[in-house]
Structures are given as C-alpha cells and as structure tokens.
Amino acid sequence: MKKLFIDIGGTHLRSEIVSEEHTAEDMVSSQEVGLLSYIDKQATLHPDISFIGISYAGQVNNGIIAASPNINIDEYDIASVVKSRYGIPLVIDNDLNCAVRAESAYWQSDNIAALFVGTGIGAAVIDHGSLVKGSRNMAYEIGHIPYQETPFFCGCGRNNCIELFASGSGMGKWLKHFGSDHDLDLNRLKNSDIEEERLIASRFEDAFLHASGVLVTLANPEILVLGGGVIEQNPYLGTLLEEKLKRYALNASLEGLRIEMSVLKNAPLEGAKLLETQNG
Ligand SMILES: [Zn+2]
C-alpha cells in the first residue's frame, strides 16, 4: 500500500508517494494545478493509495478548506469528495500546524512555536504537547494581524495585514507598487541603490520582528523555530531576532527562549506524514 503526502503552498505543490520500498517525490506549480485535480491524477495513477495527508497554506477545519489567501481552490469539501470518489481517507491541516508538529518531534519540545516566512507568513504553537487549534482550527493566523495600512490588498481581503510587509508576496506587492520589475530577493533589496527598495527591506524586517514579538509574547514558547523559503534564503533574520526581539516582546517571555532555524528539508510535508496518527 502507498500513502500520498502533499504540501501545497502559494508557489509549489510538493508531494511524496511513500511505499514500503521507496518514496517518489513530485513538484508542480500550485498556481497551475488545483489540489483536487492533482489528487485525481495521483489516485488514478496509484489505485493502491491507502491514505492522503495534506499540509495546506490556508485555513482548514475538519477536512474542509475555509479560505486560502494565496491558493486557488478547486474544491472546498476536499476530504469528503476524495473519500466518496476513491474511498481514501484524507486528513488536511494548515501548513504551519503541520510544520510545528514536525518541529516538535525534531526538537523534542512540548512547548514550541513555529514562524515560517515564504509566500505568506504563518505561525503555529504546541503548548504542553497539544496543538493550539482555536474553535475552528484557526489559531495563530499571525500573518493577518492588523499592522499598517497599505495601498493594496491582502489575499484575505484587508489592507493592513502583517503579511503585506513580512512575506514574499508582500514584498512582491510593494515592488509592483513602486513600479519595479526587479526580483524580490530580500538581501538584494536591503543593499539596493534605490531608496524605495531599501524601504521594502526595512519594513519587512520591522514587520517580521513585530510578528515574532507578538507570537513569543502570546504563546511563551520554549523554542521559536524559524523556517520557510524567505528565512532559508536570508538566515541573517535569525541573528536579527536574537539581537532585536527584546524590543518587540515582553521581557519575561524571552527568558529561556531558544531561537532555532528549521533544519528539516520540508517541515510542513514532514508534518503531513504525522496527520494519520496525530489528528487529535
Ligand atoms: Zn490578510
């Protein structure tokens, strides 16, 4: 029997088909392929899939997709449609909820917060061994905390989210606003000759520090683990947090706090592999 694990973000859909013998990896553009149509293809190619675990960059609850600022949705009621179409049990959870499960296992910590910055910025928390879910599995949607007004809109419909500053998509929106067609590499923006580009980088850093400070102050974790594509490409952000977080968080919350960089190749995908047993 095989198991299909999927990590779908704003840019890529990555998957692994895991059998006892081997693992087959795949990656496609998440802007071009819908989640259900991807599953349709895989379930047809591999009729012996016995379980599907999905890490999803959006708001999900009980197998139903509620919203996703950065992904086009081809089916909201994903778990029951796949179950009725193929008879395959499917568990889907928010990507950061998946990531923090994997990080908790890796760091062997029961009090851990994950903050990941890629296309979006997201967070999740495990408190005394339990994932903090909220009433509808939407706790710690830190990217959409009000921050400062912007001249454009977030995928969630508002124009003042942290994500509009401290994320890949946010930097892209600012570049477009300033009429720049340069790439959105944070390091390049930081050292740019153009004042507006340096401003995008400094606003990113401030919003990132703000998000981190809010997360640490509210959740009081033992470990804050940083990950996601933008963090991986800019490891200096970890040092920046070590140096400046005290200006953005309650002092007492910082006592004993460890800041770690994720070392997992793909923490959300690794967390999706835990969904079959940890979906409590
Ligand atoms: Zn938003």
UniProtKB/TrEMBL annotation:
Instruction: Give me the segments passing through the membrane.
Output: none
Family assignment from sequence similarity: Belongs to the ROK (NagC/XylR) family.
> What protein is this chain from?
ROK family protein
